[in-house]
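Quick review question:
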């Protein structure tokens, strides 16, 4: 399948194709966001002043996976970091290299932008994804703490 995968930016006129994947991602993590938040997120992806981006994996022309990534400053390096925030592949396309291609595409975008690292989080229970992540990156050894307001 990977030879049929094209990775490219998801165009502004492709929201209808992006929405089911975004909904699938949120469902996978048993969460939701208000529609207004999704609207703002979509607008940010297509605003040149925003450091947020969306790439899609197209198999035979159909959007089957998405990755959202954000550039941000760091106190540790002169260059930005790249946060791979969300990665989701349709169930039928999993295990065929689509997720790997999306991650590698983010790596290329980060390198081209002069970022010094790409980082992301996943749940401890997301064992299937961790098989891939262990192949394409190093575990940081850190745990996330947060306070939601």
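Suggested answer, residue by residue:
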């Amino acid at each position: 399948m990977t030879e049929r995968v094209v990775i490219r930016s998801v165009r502004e006129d492709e929201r209808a194709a992006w929405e089911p994947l975004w909904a699938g991602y949120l469902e996978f993590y048993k969460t939701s966001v208000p529609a207004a938040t999704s609207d703002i997120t979509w607008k940010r992806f297509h605003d040149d002043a925003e450091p947020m981006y969306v790439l899609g994996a197209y198999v035979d022309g159909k959007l089957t996976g998405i990755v959202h990534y954000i550039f941000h400053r760091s106190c540790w390096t002169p260059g930005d970091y790249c946060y791979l925030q969300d990665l989701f592949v349709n169930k039928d396309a999993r295990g065929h290299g689509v997720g790997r291609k999306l991650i590698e595409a983010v790596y290329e975008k980060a390198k081209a932008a002069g970022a010094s690292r790409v980082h992301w989080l996943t749940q401890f229970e997301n064992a299937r994804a961790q098989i891939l992540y262990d192949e394409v990156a190093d575990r940081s050894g850190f745990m996330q703490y947060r306070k939601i307001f």
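Why it works: The mean pLDDT is 94. The two ends are 43 Å apart (CA to CA).
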